[in-house]
Write a structure and sequence with these properties.
Elements: E1 5-10, E2 25-26, E3 29-30, H1 31-39, E4 47-53, H2 59-67, E5 71-75, H3 80-91, E6 95-100, H4 108-120, E7 125-127, E8 138-141, H5 142-151, H6 161-165, E9 173-175, H7 195-207, H8 215-224, H9 237-244
Helix pairs in contact: 3-5
């Protein structure tokens, strides 16, 4: 059976900490374009699709996608999972790769490796905890995603999708173990959530003149320049408590 795999980027311009960060400049290009350039290097997915909301504030994303010939889907503002389900149905996809729009260093090589492991093991949800934060992706079986969405007590909380999908008691999950020890650096944070995170991302792109290299080279450069990263945020306890309280309706 052929498996159609799509990379779906969840992105909106609303952000409490760093509004409109998807359009923030990274070496003369919007962050979301840099992210898209990077994940397009993955060989297995058939397409990269931005999944944004119908809120007027996200009109700029649709316009940018049109200008750059990138597929853009607009759906529910808060129910992120429903956007993924609708896109998968429209595109007849069997598997989707979840990427979030504030992770311009998402690694395409590990994405392909995880997709391969996901399909070989007939997993429903595949994740890794080994890579730097902000470089990981998640591989999701579409039928499992549909079942999960139906079980949600509050679909509008599906922004916190990881907590809902990583449920080995309900789904066949696979934790992918990264073999390359040089990449096993979960303490490094490369997501863009604050102004200081954005400064880190810009420093990386400036150093590599707009061409973010393979993840191993980024990590090596950061190790040589430890002053570049100042991790001034962690997922705050309120957010964690809210997220873990988003439950599935199961017997």
């Amino acid at each position: 059976m052929d498996h159609k795999v799509l990379t779906l980027v969840a992105v909106r311009l609303k952000s409490n900490r760093l509004p409109r960060k998807a359009l923030a400049e990274l070496y003369s290009e919007p962050l979301i374009i840099r992210l898209t350039e990077r994940v397009q290097l993955a060989k297995i997915p058939a397409n990269v699709i931005w999944c944004t909301s119908t809120h007027p504030q996200d009109d700029a994303l649709e316009q940018l996608a049109s200008e750059r010939n990138i597929t853009c889907f607009r759906g529910a503002e808060m129910d992120v999972m429903s956007r993924f389900v609708e896109v998968a149905n429209q595109e007849n996809a069997s598997t989707v790769v979840r990427v979030t729009g504030d992770n311009p260093f998402t690694d395409p090589v590990m994405m392909d490796a995880m997709i391969g492991a996901h399909l070989n093991n007939k997993a429903e949800y595949t994740f890794t905890e080994d890579l730097p934060v902000g470089t990981r992706s998640e591989i999701i079986d579409v039928e499992m995603l549909k079942r999960c969405h139906k079980l949600l007590q509050d679909p509008n909380a599906s922004e916190y999708m990881t907590w809902m999908l990583n449920r080995p008691d309900q789904f066949k999950t696979l934790k992918y173990n990264v073999e390359n020890q040089k990449l096993k650096r979960p303490e490094i944070i490369l997501t863009v959530d604050t102004e200081s995170d954005l400064r880190v991302a810009r420093a990386i792109y400036e150093n590599f003149e707009g061409k973010a290299p393979i993840l191993e080279h980024i990590i090596h450069w950061l190790d040589l320049n430890p002053e570049v990263i100042v991790n001034d945020i962690d997922l705050d306890s309120t957010t964690i408590n809210e997220a873990v309280n988003y439950k599935l309706v199961v017997d």
